[in-house]
Amino acid sequence: MGPFGAKAAGTWIARQAVRRGLLGSSRLWMAVFVAQGAFKLGRRVMGAREPVTVLEERLDPGAGIEIRHMKKGRG
Q1: How far is Cα 40 from Cα 34, in angstroms, rounded to an integer?
Q2: Are 16 and 24 in contact (CB under 8 A)?
Q3: Residue-wise pLDDT tens digits, 18-70
């Protein structure tokens, strides 16, 4: 997730890039259109990352677990 309204801003930029760059004659917006397409293609090619198993342990019947989150620098 990003900041509030980031998706709406991205949609606005994409529309302007198509309207002013692809359909219009603005070189700047055409560059934005091409950059956006390259970014989307790169994300598609790289694909989704597989989750990494950090710990796997067998629990005895009746045993419980406690999950904590610590900042990276603290242990």
Answers
A1: 10
A2: no
A3: 999 999 999 999 999 999 999 999 988 988 788 888 888 899 999 998 888 87
